[in-house]
Amino acid sequence: MPDDLTRHVDAETALAGAPPGHKDELRLWLRLLTCTTLVEAEIRRRLRREFDTTLPRFDLLAQLERAPAGLTLGEVSRRMMVSNGNVTGLAARLEEEGLIERRVSPTDRRAQTLRLTARGRREFARQSRAHEGWIAELMAGLAPAERAALHALLGRAKASVRAGLEGGEA
Amino acid sequence: MPDDLTRHVDAETALAGAPPGHKDELRLWLRLLTCTTLVEAEIRRRLRREFDTTLPRFDLLAQLERAPAGLTLGEVSRRMMVSNGNVTGLAARLEEEGLIERRVSPTDRRAQTLRLTARGRREFARQSRAHEGWIAELMAGLAPAERAALHALLGRAKASVRAGLEGGEA
DNA sequence: CACGAATGCTTGAAACCTAAACTATTTAGC
DNA sequence: GCTAAATAGTTTAGGTTTCAAGCATTCGTG
């Protein structure tokens, strides 16, 4: 029998006794993490079941779809916020399946440009349509005004986090 | 049935008339994901540098800290929202380092209870103090009222996602 | 032009993570 | 009591992920 991750108990459960003082921020972070994890797990599950693929593969294709001129491995790495070694392996698998192609840059022999193949574009279009619907479905319990407010507050949160990143101050 | 029929758009018309239309939800999700990823990456980085440990290890210790009576592997798996096979390996490493101990349940010979050792408790206390400060630091750019509003909206989002999970309706 | 620094990518080791198959034990129904 | 189903954990195979080290190429500066 497969594992059932849906039947979980929150990470934000206990944590009631609070001596120090930053428990508020911690609770906020745990709730943020819970939301993301819930959505992510569900999307992974559906991607696997419906398209026999994984989230990182989908994400890489999505990056290339948005950049018709192609992206270098380094650019993909930065946009996906993962290590470059990670992208190397991911791209290798996708290339082997004929979903993307790589071409050495004519101006810089170190760099390679990744591009969707026709098949990759077709395949991603199918996945993307479904994906968009899934997200809408999961967010359907929020009123449009709530979604807008949440979006704005997350923008503020993003700015706050960026400001607190190490090296960001320098 | 709605009071004002002229202003009512049912699901069919909405689907028929629009190209896709769920870009809002998608943007919201991507921003949520970005926030979480940013924080998570930074916490991972600091845990590694300051304590030479990883986020999943920290999370497992945190679960046990909150449950002084101990937890079975399955309970940990559900609370951390990861597979049970995952917890097996994680717990094995932590036990080998003497941070946690496992004991077969006296009432159920299948189950094992995990507990922090004295050393594990000491070590986690150090990490936890730092971790709490890091989160507060990253969230420092949000006013208390913003944090409260965000927390509430994320609660709504969590409920929405839960309602949309497969099998959750059954 | 030379050469040290920076950049783009790959590789290797180790950890993480999942889904699925498996073993052992307990529970429920008859 | 017996047996089928459910439950607790482990194992296996394969993808994901990081960090650190390494190679090749380009750039900046003298």
Automatic annotation (TrEMBL), chains A, B:
Name of the molecule in the record: MarR family transcriptional regulator
Organism lineage: Bacteria, Pseudomonadati, Pseudomonadota, Alphaproteobacteria, Acetobacterales
GO molecular function: DNA binding; DNA-binding transcription factor activity
Keywords: DNA-binding, Transcription, Transcription regulation
Keyword DNA-binding: yes
Signal peptide: none
Family matches, as Pfam families: MarR_2 (PF12802)
UniProt xrefs under PANTHER family: HTH-TYPE TRANSCRIPTIONAL REPRESSOR YETL, TRANSCRIPTIONAL REGULATOR, MARR FAMILY
Matching InterPro entries: HTH_MarR-typ, MarR/SlyA-like, Tscrpt_reg_MarR-type_CS, WH-like_DNA-bd_sf, WH_DNA-bd_sf
